[in-house]
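Response to reviewer comment R2.3. The reviewers asked that we include at least one raw input/output pair. We reproduce the pair for Peptidase M28 domain-containing protein here without editing.
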Amino acid sequence: MNYFLLLLAAALSLLTACGTRPPGASSKASTSPTEPPAFGAIREDELRRDLFELASDSLRGRRAGREDELRAAVWVADRAREAGLEPAGADGTYFQFYPLRRVAVSADSRVQLNGQVIALWQDAWVTNPVEARLDGPVVWLNSMADTTKRDLRGKIVAMNLLPPTPLPAPKMSLWGFRYILSALGQQGAALRSKGVAGIVLVADATAEPQLGFVGFRYEDGTYNLPATTTPATPPAAPLLLVRQALGARLRSKATLKASLGVDSYIYPSINVIARAPGSDAALRAEHVLFSGHHDHDGVGPALQGDSIWNGADDNATVSVAMLAIGRAWKQNPGRRSALFVWHGAEERGLLGSRWYAEHPTVPKNSIVAVLNGDMIGRNAPDSAALLGSVPPHRNSTALVNMALQANNQFTKFKLDNTWDDPKHPEGWYFRSDHLPYVRAGIPGLFFTTLLHPDYHTPRDEASRIDITKLARMTRWMYATGWAVSNTPERPSVDPGAKLER
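Raw output as returned:
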């Protein structure tokens, strides 16, 4: 924790002043509401340089709540300062710190099967952090039909993991992870409804190869904002997921003894906020907010010897795109100001954007639109998506029209609207940082080039990014923001707009 404190002190003391304007920069604004004047400031060489630094192994995947996320935030703030952007965070800095609460199974927790210690996080995973003491015989269930044949209240039950119904859609991202989560959710709820004291599920052939990947998340625990309140409910019975090799021992008059504890931690996370003032005295108090996240998954299970989950596409691409847009805005500002928010802890549940939407450093009603990006550097060169552009996710037709006009006029991507369908299995619209703003009643859009096989794996490396496409996506976001900035009337929220969930 001393390292955290030193890093925070360095961030607060060194990065409070706005940098000087880059040589040759101009404060003259274009008179056209739709012709962005500084496309030339969005340069592939600068995007490549920034991307390879932010997604490098030296930042170790930028996991939220760890010093690596804070180091990444300092890097972003320093680049924003070099671009001449003003600090717009707390207390005259580029930063907005907020607390994360992590709840995890304590290190001194123990599980024994037939008197032998079972290695947690190697052979058994506690899937819900909960204080519990178990000591007794195991009731083996051959199927869910067995739950109707006897009173299971207060018993420790074990059975094979059953496939969820329905299965995750074919080719859905993180398919094995979703398979296990769905199976545990369905089976666990059904068994808990019988009043059991504890549950042990034996991985099936589909789950077994995924245990390291999924188990890492269970070992890490859960994250949330401390202010989050939920109705008080009795603790859920603990659920252990174990390897197939333990199945035979559980079937044969087994006894289980478990002492499970819970630790709760408060970690610092951080949003980075910068501003480029607008040129119009009457409109510069209003803001076009460019949104992305600078965190990723950190160091996790190795894949082919690589344990650093660099998050180049997710979401270093947008982080460096926002720096490029900032340089363009400083070179030739729009009428309204541009606000840049690099959110932390997105991967832990949109926590940074949730915090900023509730605690903005500018008046909330001054935010006229949120242009969020997530993963903008992969897949076919001409493909992209604009989520929030069709109902039921669309909340501002005026904003959508500006984005579509910018694409038609400048970047000419072929847009895939199918991901806005509420029946799309990915639910992708609900998984990025525009969402808290839209829920707060602010017009918002989500720019993306969609998922790919390297999503949330160590293969998401800077070397795999299409830099030319990244620059093109950056120009689309910039051109859209330019139109929002210079159109006299701010985009409005459509009457009756609401999300389907």
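Residues 195 and 206 are 28 Å apart (CA to CA). The chain has two domains: 2-13+36-102+266-486, 107-260. Further pairs are available on request from the corresponding author.
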